[in-house]
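Review this fold:
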Amino acid sequence: MTALLEIKGLHAEIAGGRKIIQGLDLTVNKGEIHAIMGPNGAGKSTLSYVLAGKPGYEITAGEVYLNGEDLLAMSADERAAKGVFLAFQYPMEIPGVATLTFLRAAFNAQRKARGEAELSSPDLIKRVREIAKTLNIDADMLKRPLNVGFSGGEKKRNETLQMALLQPSLCVLDETDSGLDIDALKVVANGVNALRSAERGMIVITHYQRLLDYIVPDIVHVFAAGRIVRTGGKDLARELEATGYAQYQSEAA
């Protein structure tokens, strides 16, 4: 199989020198979905931020490659143009910017960065509305300021819409199930599953097994104290649901 993402010996810390990721090795091949599970404070969200290029995190050792290119040498916008997408646990609200305006700007900025022609507004609107229907997003929601006053389910459906529009090669979902009721979870999971592709990889970060009933992973990793301490198949998620993370925290200490 062809490697999409390769992480080798990664160490990262935040301002003040607090070490968060401590020797992470991970390979995500094209077509694979990897679930990362672990307790609070293990470094799961930090990994997502480091991959996306969020400021405030210092890489002290290690390498990260996306399709063979040095990801750590790229700015956040360059990573996005190369196909990295981060779905946040708590999506930001942007007052004064309509959702459709934001989608148009993001889509065409990425096309421009790749040297591709921008899509005309009518064609883009048509594409957005087609995707929106599959996610139970109505036209009024597209006119509202981005995420302002949205419910948890609306915010997560909106991020899934962004993914479906941008067609990233690496989707990183940081606790997408947070704040979702079962109906919203099913809608979001169906949207994510529609993006499964032989050329795309996904990292699904979650505390709970329930999300993985709907987005079924190929590989499950247990993350503790900033590194992977166990890897298995989808059944590992059910085991974790039954036994918890205490044994892995002690092993990683």
